[in-house]
Design goal:
Layout: H1 2-23, H2 29-42, H3 46-56, H4 60-73, H5 76-117, E1 119-123, E2 126-131, E3 137-140, E4 143-147, H6 152-167, H7 170-183, H8 188-209, H9 215-224, E5 236-237, H10 241-252
Parallel strand pairs: 2-4
Antiparallel strand pairs: 1-2, 3-4, 3-5
Helix pairs in contact: 1-2, 1-8, 2-8, 5-7, 6-8, 7-8, 8-10, 9-10
Length: 263
């Protein structure tokens, strides 16, 4: 089992290096989104798929003789130590998975509490929860959350932006990352996959919104805001300090040449 997790981590690290080196700075946002989702999940299958191929190259006589040798060499004491080690590893993994499950449930309860405090409205058939005394703005599944302290002028752009997240089903991407994180909470690659996906979501939404309004007005609106965020990692947050500069950079970036997808 330890070997399996190590192999998953190695595969994910390779895929991430490929993304960071060749794809991250390109404007193939949808293709990059698919790449991150696909490679993060296929990494869990590749170690399993490779096992039968390894068995095929092992001579049959070795496969037959190997159990007999192992039975003769194995002692009850060694077996006991091995069982004890596996139990300890399983306990540590289980405690970590349980802790992350509790955190995930806590995030759902936070959303539920916010809905109870908010006023429900509608925007193009979507549910909008107006949050009192805040400038937060984010979305999750088919719901948008926007603070009362945001001006009506800025509210229009934000709602349009968050509607793109909902239309593109970005919440499901982040929920997949939350689930993978729960399984391999000790794997730093999962956190990097999630961070890159969250950035792509913002680039995709920004690119869609500027089709209907001047680009300069839009990114000046980003810079002019004073804001705060809620710490719920599977929501698409409109205002994010670390992402604002990247989003403006991408708004200025020319569309990447399609031929680069071949490299």
């Amino acid at each position: 089992m330890i070997q399996y997790f190590v192999e998953v981590l190695v595969f994910q690290a390779i895929f991430l290096v490929g993304y960071e080196v060749w794809l991250k700075r390109e404007s193939f946002f949808q293709s990059n989104r698919f790449y991150l989702l696909f490679t993060s999940m296929i990494s869990f299958l590749l170690p399993i798929i490779s096992l039968p191929s390894l068995a095929m190259v092992i001579p049959q006589d070795i496969i037959v003789q190997l159990p007999a040798v192992l039975i003769q060499e194995t002692t009850p004491q060694v077996e006991s130590i091995s069982t004890s080690s596996w139990s300890f590893v399983g306990l540590i993994w289980g405690l970590g998975a349980m802790g992350f499950s509790v955190l995930l449930l806590r995030k759902f309860f936070m959303l539920k509490r916010l809905r109870q405090q908010a006023t429900l409205e509608s925007y193009n058939g979507l549910s909008v929860y107006r949050l009192p005394s805040t400038k937060a703005a984010f979305s999750f599944l088919n719901h948008m959350y926007i603070g009362d302290d945001i001006s009506e002028k800025d509210r229009a752009s934000i709602l349009e932006h968050e509607a793109v997240h909902i239309e593109q089903k970005h919440s499901f991407d982040l929920l997949i990352m939350e689930f993978l994180q729960l399984i391999m909470w000790f794997n730093p690659c999962i956190y990097r996959f999630k961070s890159n996906l969250a950035s792509l979501h913002e680039f995709i939404a920004d690119a869609q919104v500027i089709k209907s309004q001047p680009k300069v007005d839009y990114y000046e609106g980003l810079l002019a805001q004073t804001f705060q965020t809620h710490n719920i990692s599977f929501t698409n947050t409109f205002f994010n300090h670390s992402l604002i500069k990247k989003r403006i950079t991408m708004l200025h970036k020319s569309k990447s040449n399609a031929i680069l997808k071949l490299y």
